[in-house]
Amino acid sequence: MSAIRRGKPWPLGSSITAHGVNFSVAAPGANRVELLIFPTAEASSPEQLIDLNDSNHRSGDYWHVEVEGLTAGCCYGYRVFGPLAPGGHGFRPAKVLLDPCARAITGWSVYQREAAIGASPNTHCCLKGLVCERDRFDFDAHPRPRHSWQQTVIYELHIGGFTQRSDSGVTPDRKGTLLGVIDKIPYLKQLGITTIELLPVQAFDPQDAPPGRDNVWGYSPLSWFAPHQGYVGGDDPMKARNQMRDLVAACHDAGLEVLLDVVYNHTTEGNVDGPTLSWRGFADRTYYHQTDKGDYQDVSGCGNTIAAHQPLSRELILESLRCWALELGVDGFRFDLGIALSRGEGLKPLDKPALFEAMEADPLLSELKLVSEPWDCGGLYRLNDFPARRIGTWNGRFRDAVRSFWKGDDDSTWSMAQRLRSSPDLYDGKPAGLGRSVNLLTAHDGFTLMDLVSFNSKHNLANGEDNRDGENHNNSWNHGVEGPSSDHAITALRKRQQRNMLSTLLLARGVPMLLMGDEVGRSQGGNNNTWCQDTPLSWMIWSEEHCDRELLDFVKRLLTLRSELAELLNPLLAHSEQPQQQRRNSDPDGLWRQWHGVELGKPDWASWSHCLAMSLHRGKQGAVLWAGFNAYFKAMHFDLPKPASPWHRLIDTALPAGEDLPKTLDPWSPSGVPLEARSLVVMIAREYANSLNL
Description:
By secondary structure, the chain is an alpha/beta fold. It has 15 helices and 26 strands. Strand 2 and strand 3 form a beta hairpin. It is elongated. The N and C termini lie far apart (69 Å).
């Protein structure tokens, strides 16, 4: 029997000491806590049970103990005793609870989610925490790339689906794992992105899904500290943290940043009828928004909502961020339904949420990139007034405006212009600062880009919910035939529209995000909610037979173009909309923007307009860049402004692949340019054309 010491309340979780292991967990309303030590991951009962009492093992809200002789690899869990809360839920001492701060998890081979529901014990099939190291990431050997927001291009990918196919070039033992992504870093570098954003890699419950299906995306968190075991090469959960470090180190060495999509707004425990796995059993009334009667208040759409305004919840989230940023080396976070974390008592939106203030004041988190969704399922949507200075937001209005314009909707031209100039209409009349707006066309939740131009409606029957799930309003257009088509005219127009939207995304000021596979024409068969599809339907495509290599080349050149022309396309300070002679104390050679229609200086903002053009001028010298957008079903002729040096045609999406964005640019001498129906053209002055390396 191991010797028992009083222990310390800090650090939270399990930590190795000179004598053994210290355990600390918050359970403010409990009157008794038991620590269970299991001999193995599959053990059906503990080999040691340690009773923690108020007098020796409690400091404030925290219960703690140090157990001599224990080492890394020790399996453990808790039972917590206390009164039932209003509504009949709260402490469930029959359930073995997972330490919310456990940095590794084991017991997956015997785990049964259903056994954590109801009053019966689940000791024989529970998950266990695993004692492991808390080493810091080696930033000296693998420093953060620290790309500026001006340079940043984000690529959203799913760890499992990225390398799952047999033709991914990844060995079978590394397919669908953290290590498998390392093997594809050369592809990501050649593409030209700077930052990968990983769908949830914090441990989630695959069993949180309808019968016969798995939770694949991972928006069902079981732990905010442990890497998901399903993404670990091999069966040893003790290797999970080092494999995560290996991925981050390899990305850093290649100049790529790593952002994590984190889910702090809810957990896998669901509503009152869900399982008692961790948070609920320790401090149900503290961690979750509830009414006085004990009813769950849900703005996540998943049965519960984390009460981030509560000090214990806030501390747990901050500790999780530090764990991933300092111990595992990641470079930033994207907060799923992040605005839900700004809600206070009674779900009231707070203008100064304590969590965000603490996050921004923490020097250990100060160099991270932070991004959030500005909406939640309770109707809260805060874009320009997101209540945090350093957290940028996904700009869903950008997605909607670009889709509507190229689809040919009425009343879309004005919105399109606003998105190109960094959405001043959404940010109190001023273009959004770089890092404040993340521009996107598609994301994991919704149609892929290929499906956006191939389907009018979602086709989600494979999910088993009679096509009720997934977004109904997609702003998509099939161009004449629902789904795949052998009609050459339709397929050619779809290819053009993909180029139109990708070009718009990368010509617009802001931080662009690409979805995994959009660059090669990946389709999900019209399914816009593949959260439970661990099948080829949601996997990345790699083979020549399935990939649109011409589109891939186009995207690579677009990304090179954006990088080399950052001064024009993504300046640190937004371009002025006034000529030099109308501005005070301005650089006589400064850049300024002018808007046009088919005629110079005459943009048509009418509801029926489907054409738009813009030019950038250098002082009085003339224009250096011109872009025309024709979403009309007929060809249109646009006048060109006088250039600072002779025009060269840079992009024309109506031209055949390879000529649409050629490596070598040809001079353009006419005073105007024809734009085919539903096409985009960009002209650039010779002074820039000669310096490009496409």
